[in-house]
Amino acid sequence: MLKEFKDFLMRGNVVDLAVAVVIGTAFGAVIAAIVDGIITPILGLAGDQDVSQYVITLKEGEGGAPDITLKWGAVLTAVIKFVSVAAAVFFLVVKPVGALMARRAAGVEPESEAPSEEVVLLTEIRDVLQARS
C-alpha cells in the first residue's frame, strides 16, 4: 500500500498540480500586493481612505455591542483582485499557450510545399529501378 501511495505521489499530474498550486499562490500574493498597494488606494482618492475600508453601518452598536456593518469596500477589493488574477492568467498563460498549441497543430498537418530536388531525384531513380525489374 505504501508503494502505491508513493507511485500516486510521483505521477506527473500530482507533481504538476503541486507546482501549479505553489506558483498560483505566489502569483496571487503578487496580484494582491498590486491591488492593495496601488489599485485600491487610487480608487480611494475619491474619499479619504482606502476603498477596502469603506463600510455601510446598518445599526450602531448599543451598550458595547459591535456595529452591524456591510464591508462593501472589502468585497470590491476582493472582486478587483479576482479580476486582476483572471486577466493576468488569461493574457499571460491562456492566450500564449493557445497560440503555441495552434502553431503546433498547424505544423503537424502535411506540408503543401513541393518536394525538394533530392526527393524528386530519388523518386526518379526508384521509378527507373522498378521499371528494370
Structure description:
By secondary structure, the chain is mostly helical. Strands 1-2 form a two-stranded antiparallel ribbon. 71% of the residues lie in helices and 5% in strands. The chain has one domain: Orthogonal Bundle (Non-ribosomal Peptide Synthetase Peptidyl Carrier Protein, Chain A). Strand 1 and strand 2 form a beta hairpin. The chain starts with a helix and ends with a helix. It is built from 4 helices and 2 strands.
Q: TL;DR?
A:
With 133 residues, the protein is mainly α.
CATH architecture classification = Orthogonal Bundle
Q: Quick one: overall form?
A: elongated
The CATH class name reads Mainly Alpha
- The share of residues in helices is over 70%
Instruction: State mean pLDDT (0 to 100 scale).
Output: 82
CATH superfamily: Large-conductance mechanosensitive channel, MscL, domain 1
% residues in beta strands: 5-15%
Distance between the termini: 64 Å
Structural class: mainly alpha
